[in-house]
Each structure stands twice: as structure tokens, then as C-alpha cells.
Amino acid sequence: MAKRDLDEEGIENAVRTRLESEFCLSVPCSFFSVASCRKHFGVDLRKAERGSEMTRRTLATLVLACAVAVACMVTSASAQFRELSVNAAQVTGTVRSLQGVNQVPVLPQSNGVKLWPRPQPDLRRQYKELGIDSVRTHDTDGPTDIDAFKKGQPVDGTIFPNWDADPEKPKSYIFGPSDHVITAIKDTGAEVYFRIGRTYDSDPIRVPDYDKYASVVKHVAMHYNSGWAEGYHYNIHHWEFWNEPDVAADWIEHGSGVEERYTVNWPEPIGQFYKLYAKVAMSLKSYDPKLKVGCCALSRGQSSSPYREGFIRYCAEHNVPLDFYSWHHYTDDSADPWDYVRIGRDVREILDTNGLYNAEDYCTEWEMCLTDATRGPHPQSIYSMAAAAWTASTLVYMQDSPINLAHFEAGPSLFNPDGTYRKRAYVFRATLAMLKTPQRLAVAGADTIGFAVLAGRSPDGKTVQVLISNYEIPDLGGGPPVALRPPNVPVLESRLGIKYANNQGYSLRLDNLPWGDHEFSVRRYRITEKENFDLAGEASGRGTTFTVSNPLPPPGIELIVLEQK
Asked: From residue 54, how far is each of 17, 38, 49 by CA, in Å?
């Protein structure tokens, strides 16, 4: 084998760069070698580069050669590509932020002692980098819980541990541990979404005094919004009552071959739940009518329940304030990112049917699987590339749902124990980037079974972006999920007959680009098994139309950024 000249690689790179910048061609590295161009097309790249500039005739020869060769190389592959089109002149709505998460960015502490046994670094910087804009205060195991008991003893860090105390007196409250995590959320620039109630797996004890409980909640709001009891002026707007009151005593979790019963989060009759919510909502509104107060963080948002239809009907009939209704969903039994659109529309319809047109629709826990796939039916871990593509497709599909606010479960799971990014953190980087182009554009060619596309334009018309997520729903074998098998609670009916075609890549055409005859740059960023939102290619163009075609087999994600020069 002949030894390559030392400068051949540099020559080849120069030619490819020239073709990509002037003709917007994506040139395979293996195609434009010095040897292959001489053999197949009679072009000596070394001579072409030896002069002061490559001649247009030589370039034209290479362009024609590239077109022929690439056509031969990718004809069979491109037949499997998805044909996509974006009309940059047709604004269809707004690209909305869905960057909320559950769980606080720092370890809860009490008197300087960490309350969580698990390792977690300070994630304030990472939350800020991902544009996390709403943090739900749930599962802090003490801090931000109004009360919580385990084995009959108050959990460290709860706000009001003694129900014999006077709720009007500041000394009755322990605010320090909650102040620590609430301030950490505010440090990230995110809004605090305050969950009223108890951390999961607390003792299922009854609330001893409903009027006192409502007064305590009001004083907590006063502490964080009006400075009461040496407090703050954080303007916490969202106050969510309770968490998953529908969990029943006969629900069973199957984990590592051991059956464990779920902890009951509401141990009293359903009517008492309605009554306590009404008192808490009215108490908060008496302090500040502008606060948004809602319920119920339903564990299975897809299921008919007295805590869904019944609760919403109660609020409507009794004129009880309900600014939002919240629900949860894990796709254990479907792995289908479109689930959230279906459930969100169902909840919206129930609210509207009861005349609550202004009540908002929140999904305050969403995740692919209830576990990390060390158990349950999923063939992939929630830390995998497949889960990253599921996450991206879910976030794109939520744009087409009536969901007003969403919280991913959970923020810390986006990162490794040392604070470095896992795959799905890069997904939130990509969706954050899309918020720079909030004028949503018309897209053709996407589907609802995993191939999700979101396009946007900046208000000044100088940037257009397209986010493509390619995900395939795995065959889970049907039937109820293994991870959670509550009796007499229907799962969301899986969509049948899903078949995939033309999803091994994309052929994208953008029309009516907003900068007229000006030049523009093109950058492509990818998230794949080997790429972590890395720059995958650059090109340039001129005018109002641009086309690009690339392989992107599932699972894969790509962000395409066009900017006027």
C-alpha cells in the first residue's frame, strides 16, 4: 500500500470545507480522498489547491461528482428518510417552556446536617444551565412538608411538627430547613412550585384540625411572600394541595421480586379531602387572591376517579377556588410519549365540562418509567439514549397538548452523582435553545408515534431552528405494567397497530426563510449514543430556501440552527 502524503488530509479537508460552505453539500470523508478523486473523476486535488484559489471549473466537476456519488450511496437509505418541510412564514403559535422539574437542587439540611442519605452535589449551576424555570417541592423528606411523621415521630425539618402549637405564633414553626431549599431554588432563577402536604411514605395519619391546618398553610405563604416570621419576599405563586391522594391500601409494588404495598397518602374518606382542600384554598385566597391554588397531583392521571371527576365537580358546584388541576403519569405500560397529549386533553375536557374554563391543566410528574428499569417491563434504562429520545419526543408532543405546566421526575436524575450531565440533560439543553425562537412554525412530515419535530423563528427574524427527535416505541408485550399493578384501576389503553417506516433519517426543506437574499449559517447539533449535543456539521447558504438530508436512526435527536449572517 502506498504511503499517503503528509499533507493529503489537509488538502482533503480544505476541499470538503469549500464544497460545504459554497454549495451546502455534506461530503462523506471517505468519498473525497486524493486518490479517489484522481481515479474516478480525473481531478488532482493537490494541483487544484496548489494555485492561489481552486478554479470554478474544478469545483463544478467536484460538485457534479458529489451529486452523482452521494445519490448512488444513499439512494436506498434516503428512501427510508422522513420528508419534512417547514414554512418559516407560517407562525402557528408559541414554543412554550416545559422546563419544570421535581426535587430541589441541593440536599435538604436540618441544623447543618444533611437529611438525605443519597449522594447529590449542589446542582444550582446545572439547573440554571438547563433553564429549569419551575421546581416542585416534593419528596424533600421533611423540609417544605407542612407535617410528616414516620413511626409516630415528626420527620426532621417539617414546618409545623406540633399540632398543639399556636399557628399565629412564629415560634410554632421550624422554617430553617425549608428556607434552605426554597432559597436554593430561587438561586437558580426558577420559580418555586410549593406542594402542600407530606413526602411520600410518611405515616398515613389524619389531619387533626382542618381550620388550624388551613391557617398554618396561610402563614407559610406569608413567611415566603410577605416576610412574616423573619421570612422572604419570594412571590411564590403556585400552591398545590396534596400529592397522590388516590393511592389505595391494596396497591402493590413489585420490586426485585418483593411485593411492597404502597403508602396511603390520604387515609380519610373522600369527602374529607374535599373539605380540607376547600378550607386551605379559601385561606390562601383570603391572604392573597392572586395566588394560584390547585389540586390534586393525581397518581394516575388517565384514570377516572373521585379525585378527578368527583373533585372537579365538587369545586364547580360549591364555588371552591380551583386555579389548576394537576396529575401524574408514568408510561410503564406503554412507553408512549403521546400519552401526555391524550391525558391532557381528557383533563381539559373534564374541566371545561364543569365550566372551569380558566382552570389550568398541569402534569406535575412525568417520566418514562416509575423505576430505573432495574425492574418493570422496560427494555431500556431511563438513563439510556432511548430514554433521551423518549424525553425529547414527549417535550415536543406536549407543545400540542393543553398542558400548561409540567414537572419532569426528577431534576437530580438528569445528572450523575458528580454533577456531570446524563443523556437527558442534553435534551433539556436542546429544548432550552428552542425558546430562543418562540414563534412556532408550521411543520409537515412529523408523526405522533415518536418522530417529533418542532420548529421556531426568533422575533427579529434572524434565527430559525428545527428540533427533530426520532424515537421508536418498544414492544412491551401488552398487559398491565409489572412495576405497578393496582387492582380495578384501568391503564391507559395502548395504541395498537403501530408500524414504523421512513424513520432512518430526514430530508428537510425550509421555505420562506425570513432574511430575503441574505447569507445565513447552518449548524447541526446531535444527541446520539456517541454524541452529547455535539456540533455535527456546519454549512452556509443564501436566500429563502434551504434543504438538508442526513441519516438519523432511532434513537436520535438533532437541533438545526439557521442564523442570518
From this structure: 12, 16, 6
Measured in degrees and rounded to the nearest 5, phi and psi for residue 329 equal -160, 130
Distances (CA, A) of 392 to 337, 415, 503: 9, 16, 16
The pTM of the full predicted model, rounded to 2 decimals, is 0.84
Q: What is the distance between the alpha carbons of residues 302 and 339, in angstroms, rounded to a whole number?
A: 9
> 3-class DSSP state for residue 250?
coil
SS (HEC) of 126-158? HHHHCCCCEEECCCCCCCCCCCCEECCEECCCC
- Rounded distance between C-alpha atoms, residue 48 and residue 54, angstroms: 5
pLDDT digits (tens, 9 = 90+) for 57-80: 555 555 555 545 544 544 555 679
| CA distances from residue 49 to 27, 35, 56, 300 in whole angstroms, order as listed | 18, 15, 12, 65
Superfamily covering domain 94-457? Glycosidases (3.20.20.80)
328 and 286 in contact (C-beta within 8 Å)?
Answer: no
Give the three-class secondary structure for 486. coil
From residue 206, alpha-carbon distances to 151, 202, 306 in Å are 14, 12, 19
pLDDT digits (tens, 9 = 90+) for 16-32: 555 544 444 444 444 44
What is the tens place of the pLDDT at every residue in 431-448?
999 999 999 999 999 999
Alpha-carbon gap, residue 464 to 367, rounded angstroms: 29
Q: Which residue has the higher pLDDT, 155 or 532?
A: 532
CA distance 529 to 57: 40
Asked if residue 48 lies in contact with residue 36, where contact means CB atoms within 8 angstroms, the answer is no
Domain boundaries, the chain: 8-78, 94-457
- Could you tell me the CA-to-CA distances from 242 to 65, 218, 266, 277, 281 in Å, in that order? 66, 15, 9, 9, 12
Single out the residue of 30, 40, 35 nearest to residue 3, CA to CA.
35
In contact, 356 and 393? CB cutoff 8 Å: no
Q: Which of 427, 410, 408 is nearest to 364 (CA)?
A: 408
The predicted pLDDT at position 115 comes to 61
